Amino acid sequence: MESQDELVIEAGSTEHHYWKDLWRYRELFYFLAWRDILVRYKQTAIGLAWAVLRPLLTMVAFVFVFGKLARMPSDGAPYPILVFAALLPWQFFANAFTEAGNSLIGNANMISKVYFPRLVIPASAVIVSFLDFLLSGALLAALMLWYGLTPDWRIMTIPLFMALAIVAAIGAGLWIAALNVKYRDFRYIIPFIVQFGLYISPVGYSSAVVPDNWRLLYSINPMVGVIDGFRWAIVGGESQLYWPGVSLSLVLVLLIAVTGVLYFRKTEKSFADVI
Fold first, then answer.
1. Cβ(234)–Cβ(158) under 8 Å?
2. Separation CA 35–CA 61 (nearest Å)
């Protein structure tokens, strides 16, 4: 007879083996991520092409406004690449933050019926956005070939800045997901944060246009360091990285992630009752 694992849930015991439970429920994590990927573009006419079309259209608009009309400097790189190199991390963060923030409400029936570490839900929601990131990355590679831009050794640092973007998205997503369960106002605040963040982040322009005495204050937005790092790694050439800003972003991202996990764990027990 085939042996089966037996899960015994005792009062107060989940605190001691919570992180072990996360690994135990890894198949649920895979299932939720795969389900979200299938549902995301279901019944759409062009399917996954939306993952490329949206950043492409945004890039065209930004190039026209900031590159042609405002004539912002491009750090020696073609302006479309300057913009698209920043759109990659920003759109990943914006999509992951939005999906994670709404994930608990969207899975209310599951949360109220069975036990499992609730952290699985917002974490799996981030995977869908990572797929969009990979597809958009292919478009960026095509743009670099079109403009004849050859990356240098800095391209090897992309995984580091991508890891920083993932940690930022999960940390902020955990905060907003937990708050969204208790205060549904955050369902309306999430789109505002994403839209406002797009304009205060250096997506359509280089952060080099910010006066030097304001650069560190400007870097309080954690995505500034992430976006600058992506752009520096991809564009290469004359672009310079503002290391104090990147260091500040790193500290703030870690702070958001740690406090996000702590707040999520603190409120997690009440999700089933409140939701």
1. yes
2. 32
The DSSP code for 196 is H
Q: Is the pTM of this model over 0.90?
A: no
Ramachandran category for residue 212: left, alpha or beta (phi over 0 → left; psi -120 to 50 → alpha): alpha
Please say if the pLDDT value at position 168 is more than 90.
Answer: yes
Closest CA to 230 of 137, 150, 126, 139: 137
Rounded CA-CA distance 136/118 in Å is 30
Predicted local confidence at residue 1, as pLDDT: 46
pLDDT over 80 (residue 23): yes
Q: What is the pLDDT of residues 25-61, one digit of tens each?
A: 888 888 888 888 888 777 777 777 888 888 899 999 9
CB-side neighbour CA atoms (13 Å) of 208: 14
Three-state SS across 49-101?
HHHHHHHHHHHHHHHHHHHHHCCCCCCCCCHHHHHHHHHHHHHHHHHHHHHHH
> Pick the residue with more confidence: 245 or 76?
245
Give dist(CA 217, CA 77) in Å, integer. Answer: 26
